[in-house]
Amino acid sequence: MTARSRLLAILAALALALVACGDDDGAAPTGGGDSSTTSASSEEGERITLVTHDSFNVSESVFETFTDETGITVEVLPSGDAGSMVNQAILTKDDPQGDVLFGIDNTFLSRALDEDLFVAYESSALDRVPEEVQLDDEHRVTPIDTGDVCLNYDKAALEEAGAEPPQTLADLTDPAYEGDLVVENPATSSPGLAFLLATIDEFGQDGWQQYWEDLAANDVEVTAGWEEAYYGSFSGAADSDGDRPIVVSYASSPPAEVIFAEETPDEAPTGVVIDTCYRQIEFAGILANTEHEAEAQELVDFMLSDTFQSDIPLNMFVYPVTDVELPEAFVEYGAEAEDPYLIDADEVAENREAWIEEWTDIVLR
Amino acid sequence: MTARRLLTAVVFVVPVAFFAVFFAVPAVTLVTTGLRGGGAWELGEVGDVLGSASTRRVAWFTLWQAAVSTAATVALALPAAWIIGRVHMPGRALFSAVMVVPFVLPTVVVGTAFLAVLGADGPVRTVGSSFGLDIDLRQSATAVIIAHVFFNYAVVARTVGAAWLAVDPVTEEAARTLGASRWRAFRDVTLPQVRPALAGAAAIVFLFTFTSFGVVKILGGPRVATIEVEIHRVTTQLLDLRTAAVLSLLQLAAVIAALALYRRAGRRRGIGRLRAGRSVLRRAVGWERAVVAGTLLSSGLLLGVPIATLAWRSIDTAGGPGLGYYRALDTVGRGTVAFVPPTEAIRNSLVFGFAAATTALVVGGLAALGIHRLGGRARGFADSSLMLPLGTSAVTVGLGFLIALDEPPLDLRTSPVLIPAAQAIIAIPFVIRTMLPAMEAIPSRLREAASSLGASPWRVWTSIDARLLRRPALVAYGFAFAISLGEFGATVFIARADAPTVPVAIFRALSQPGALNIGQAMALSTILLTMTTIVMVVVDRVGDARVGGF
Fold first, then answer.
1. How large is the ipTM?
2. Which of B542, B378, B369 is nearest to B440 (CA)?
3. What is the pTM of this model?
């Protein structure tokens, strides 16, 4: 009797399982056209996939323009932060998830090139792009935007304390700024790594260690990521609970504070220390083993067009690589470093792990 | 006997297939890829990684913080389990529902709330300094442990509470009549009956805190790391899959050892007697009222303060309290690729929640049924194996999906099925831990009595098993739903272009400076916690109404 009752129960449960599985397929969202895949149009045209990081954003109209011009529809596939994205792309190299990858920066570049992640393509639009950001001679990647990681400071807090904003990296070891600085851990954060590289570029292979000893003695705070540093410890962020007036953030953070303020202020609440900036360059590359190489090339060309380039600042808060006009808030409140710090991508790749190890020993132990 | 075995095997088909496709194959594939490196097995490095001082330090921190977090969670949440299982009081249902909220909140948001509570001008330091103490818990292991209790409180309180509710107080009363003290009656009569649920809940909390990621990163500061944090770092920053594979194996070994300990602790089974009919809830009297008051106060401080901080910040605009941030959800960024209309995010979250919870209940329910039928070693093995996903690195499984599930017939990499499936994998151990003790507590006498009175086997199952299992099933469903609503970590490696959920929208808002961005994150978090409370209240209500009628 018991065995038979069990059998019935099992059959019922299995039936339920089948029904439920069927349900799952049916019920899973198939995509809200208005937020994700762009361009409502064209069954007839080709579709290509742009693999990118979670911070990617452009106006929907931009990709609609591309579709109107070429008949190609672009699907966007966000894949975590920049590091995760590159790692995923390397792991799936033989059977890529998309056709073009956008958002790899100069700190991850060497690794991707060593892995033969991309096929070369020299876009005809490259003549509008400054030489110094074209880091790969073989054109396996194409520069699309640049972003500067710089010290930001809380204008009101420094003024209240009667202190001048720092001007250089060296200033930060001054006792006047004791307990004022918060940085991100270079082992876990991309702006944190950029800032460490800036100090290595400034003080040299043998000098940066002493600088960080001095910073540690001056009570520098280290957080795991940008969110914790900016929203948790920095006093200048909107609604902040922090008590430190100087933070490692981006050159575009003051414009963002103004653009996303509840009531537009006359002046940005925070400022950028322009001589402390490290340059991050973001590239696009055509993934090897794509089945849509021609269409992928068209997308790379388009990413250097005025339509795409002028849409970059207000959506991704980085700077275009071509000379398109910048939005007013960027001109008024932003700052672009004239001569930013930058270390050769190969040198970064070679030393990155050792530098981080050494930094950890100095600052965290 | 062979027929019985065959049946058991049939029951296991679905769970084993599900477990293989969505957990075992991806995890094994990635670990193998890491260890094989350039093509040949390179095992020499395994010893190097394991022997390094940094690995030892990370492993030790992981272990002790998990043990302390689990003990603290059990100690603080057990009185709440008693309230759920025994005490009749106004607002009991809401109390039981609201405590699940922390469980679904993204760690970044909770981290921000905790930073506010622990921060320079936060209540903790303010209160401390009025007593002449400088309490700075920022970037400390203490902050990590407090946050772990915050997150996992409901796991112990609700799981054990449900078991407590199912224990007929008549046995305890009999013991009291025979002269046992209250403590003795609790220890010798009630505790053994809730023990499987307690051991199961503690095991889940241990696994969750052992593999903790976001909390440790945000609140622990840069000086401490769990193995999971380290795996994430070497994978995403250094792209060092070999070290990641070795660390994943180390984590797995520790988790297996912990599960073996748990099996010993939980072995003594409940003496199995489910209540029948009358309500077990009664008003607190005498000193019990002090316990109730103390529990409500401590949970109010621990859970209530951070939650209230979030809710307050979502309306604390520059021009005074208002809905400006909620309005911003529908306007800021409209017309861009990353814009998520709030209604769509809520809908996606609910649909994924429904799909994941249903999948978890069906697969987990079948697994529990199968485990219930097994005996001896096989039982322990099956039971522990299905808990392994809780103790496995999300990065490992997530990346494993990408390389293992990329060919037909299982080309699931960008399939919308992958997200609820990954969430269900995490929820299934909850379902088993909640359903299995309940299945075991059903006295076979009841079934035999029904059969001898002429009930058909189907009738026996629907009127006895199904009814007695309905409440635990609903508790499990609620948890699975909550896991899915708040889940972000495990699916971080799954491309999710076409269906952004509320947690995804929160992360997008938090990634840029500006009052409207942090304000939107707070507003979305408040929406998420409201959704959770509603879902839990509804689940509890439905459960009460149906079971009460038995």
1. 0.79
2. B369
3. 0.82
